[in-house]
Input
Amino acid sequence: MNFLWKFRPSWMVLVRTPSDWYMVPMFAERVDQIKPFVVMEVLARAAELEEEGHRVVHFEVGEPDFPTAEPIVAAGRDALSAGRTKYTQATGIPELRRTISDYYSGLGVSVDPERIIVTPGASGGLVLLAGLLLDPGNELLITDPGYPCNEVFAMLAGGVPKRVAVTANNRFQPLANDLFDAWSDSSRGALLASPTNPTGTMLDPEVLAEIAKGLKARGGFLILDEIYQGLVSSPPYRSGLEIVDDLFVLNSFSKYFGMTGWRLGWNVVPDDAVDYMTHLAMNLFISPSTPAQYAALAAFEPAAMAIHEERARVFRERAEVLAEGLRDLGFTIPVMPDGAFYLYVDISHTGMDSTDFCWKLLNEYQVAITPGEDFGNHLQERFVRFAYTTDEDSIRLGLERIADALDELA
Ligand SMILES: Cc1ncc(COP(=O)(O)O)c(C=O)c1O
Output
């Protein structure tokens, strides 16, 4: 191979050798399968509208609108001043792993700090778990609708995401048989969330136990994403670990703890997986963010916990205001969420496809929401996600604008 020409914008490369010419792909095939989310385009268009001077009502953003609680920010500042800017242990500083373990004790679950792996967000945790659990060709069962990035983590490890449709009839969570029916010789495990994104619903505890038992019997694993833990008023369980001890748990400081941009999360893994996870973590990330870890220690202190709890209460209030307003406008909310900060809303009565409806609302009424297509294929054209990560006045303004849009459509 004596030289390469890259044809733009194509990703094929023309290779010439003394005897031959041929084309080779520059990038891996999988990148073609990784699609950007519509919500990113919605965000970009919303920013344009704001630059033009419009006030956009944001129901699309999947992160708390509150700033990180002051005690955490102060601890982060102190960490920087104290020079806490070097690498740490790959699995996180022991103080933080102990603190997370104490947090579980407070929930009535005993988790050895050794089983806690601190990660660069739940996203980093997903990379580690995909690396740990999936070989090329292995199927990972996920829900449809569900958190869209799950597919990509599976694909990066060569795995094959397999969508299992979940419906409002079962609160957008699978029944055990839904997973067992989807199971094939290539299946290795399932990734579920409780509460979920985009529907905010929790997995029933008995179904969780049945799924865990059935997967184990098939030699499979179960990952439970608990990133919205804490954002539920009276959950049937605080962590799936209360029900199944050898789960792979995914959690994060992003949502309940209000630390999205600090990029910090954690996994709880069975004893046998700890060494492998440690090896993966040291190779892939070296360590999680050091100042973020020291800041996160303060996230569990009573002053910060009081702030998180108050915010969780505000989210629940907003859910009621938004749901009532949307129902008054004729929308169907087949299932009220148990937690998180999302409503998954059926817009069929508008007579529009959900993606078209989202664009219409944004371009003509400056209301930003996320279309169902970002979360899967199942009935996606009927559903949109509203995130109530905006204050009550904005929610009311958004509802007024949506009412105007519906008047126009009538
Ligand atoms: C269900 C779910 N899991 C994982 C993540 C990743 O979160 P992070 O990497 O910020 O911890 C998100 C983010 O929105 C999510 O909704």
Observations:
- The chain has twelve helices and 15 strands.
